């Protein structure tokens, strides 16, 4: 049967949506809607293959499917409304197959005729084209070992060093300047991450978005990887390749807002269906986008189904939830009179809170070995505490306070840093109130903020030394680590989504040094559990001295209990935030024995001056800093030195 002459009046067994599906959908607890809504390949009762369509448009006057198969004629293939009041329109269309283009033609509540995207589409045309594409991903996974052992890589007590990546600008083809495809990325990105020692990749949103310049944060295709880089199978291949290289995959996911494009979710059936009708709740003043209506059951089902989909079908190991603060606060970026208090008169968005709690309960209930990570920039309490205790239920939260304090501190000339010592040490006061991740993200190296190395103070040598110092302090500070691509290169240009990273810089020794430093930091992190096992408990951290503000020096211990024979594992870090070398700087330590210098950011191989402690030293029985033993250290300029305590039984291992 030709597609042109196909009729939708073919006997079909029944809707793939059961009465129970409708009950859950209307209740707001159907979290696998991607199995039932949108377009699905089926075979009719008479053996004819085709597709069954289902779309939620309760206030539409009529709905039909249009596409290249019927010359985009709205009269050819109408959908029928279900009898149950769900607002879902559905029908079976024979003869359709993979790669056919389609949209839903909706005569909306105002009598307007609109061609709309399928909210559940698995694939879209490459922008600026906007059609949905019939697609049923068919891929054989090869990451069974990773999936069975994933917990040891993704638990809260595992070493997390995340490489944040914008896929379109990580690397380009040298001849035509085009981005790499998913398949091409799969050849290079996993190998690079493994060589550098990163344990995870966090991808800026890969979900389909009409405007490339939004970096993916203006999402419309909540069930579709961007077609800019290939097919869904190609993206699966990339995830698979990362897993086979023991690299976890975190996806940025944006349930906070969506763009106003007329072909998308905006006023889908002529009414505010996915968004709030009231602009005080439904329109975001900063981003010019619509805010989801979290009080609507069907919208909650839609969004949580999207989160589950990426973890289920694409084997993602976690989701980083964007702009959580904007969801929690009704007055976010609004002046007095521009927001409406909740039923108790407060500024908290009660519906969004309930949505986030439901999201985390469902995600962790289905996938106990993944993590959800909140980008939450306020002091909202218990973001990473369980829902049953009143928390939001996230696994981790970005520590934006640490990031802002440290970048501000490192921008000061060293002669002024003594007056800002609190910026260096304040984070420990609250470091264990949440499960924190320390981020240096894309937002800090764009929009005129400058590259990371150019945020540092001093001349060119000092900026690179300061950068190595910052990263060393970050890697030894409690909390999981996240670094945006390009920062490991010390590139001078701030990030531009239209251009690739400055990979040619690695031909020069001064950039190779910073690159090697990040690699060695990752290696040390993975090698020493004291640096990661107790990131979220006070038991794993102890200040040796945080009061030497005049010299801008801090020293601290990271530790973890081993066993009776091996005792406690200790890591000592001492950081000098001035260009003045400190000789015989005595630092107290808890035990006598040999303290091996395992990291020194001033080593010549990293581009430093080559000062250090000759590989380590024996502790002296000289009390200092409340300890019975101490080390007379050499603290090189603008540097951090890190020591591992080795008992006699461990020497030479």
Structural class: alpha/beta
**Would you identify the regions where 5 or more consecutive residues have pLDDT less than 50?**
1-11
Helix count, per DSSP?
16
Distance between the termini: 73 Å
The largest pleated sheet is described as: 8 strands, parallel, barrel
Commentary on this structure:
This protein is α/β, with parallel strands linked by helices and 653 residues long. Among the domains are: 19-133, Immunoglobulin-like (Sandwich), CATH 2.60.40.10; 538-650, Immunoglobulin-like, CATH 2.60.40.1180. Helices cover 24% and strands 23% of the residues. The strands form seven sheets. The protein has an eight-stranded parallel barrel, surrounded by four helices. It has a six-stranded antiparallel sheet with strand order 21-22-23-28-25-26. Strand 21 and strand 22 form a beta hairpin. The termini are far apart. The model is unreliable at 1-11 (pLDDT under 50).
Name a few traits of the molecule.
single chain, 653 residues, alpha/beta, Immunoglobulin-like, eight-stranded parallel beta barrel, six-stranded antiparallel β-sheet, 16 helices, 28 strands, 23% strand, elongated, disordered N terminus
Short summary:
With 653 residues, the protein is an alpha/beta fold.
Give the topology, please.
Elements: H1 19-27, E1 38-43, E2 49-56, E3 62-67, E4 80-81, E5 88-94, E6 101-107, E7 113-116, E8 132-133, H2 144-149, H3 151-154, E9 161-165, H4 167-170, H5 182-196, E10 200-203, E11 207-208, E12 221-225, H6 232-244, E13 248-253, H7 279-282, E14 283-284, E15 289-290, H8 297-312, E16 318-321, H9 324-328, H10 350-366, E17 371-374, E18 396-398, H11 400-411, H12 414-417, H13 421-425, H14 427-430, E19 436-440, H15 460-476, E20 480-484, H16 509-527, E21 541-548, E22 553-563, E23 567-576, E24 582-589, E25 594-600, E26 616-618, E27 629-635, E28 639-646
Parallel strand pairs: 9-10, 9-20, 10-13, 13-16, 16-17, 17-18, 18-19, 19-20
Antiparallel strand pairs: 1-2, 2-5, 3-6, 4-5, 6-7, 6-8, 11-12, 14-15, 21-22, 22-23, 23-28, 24-27, 25-26, 25-28
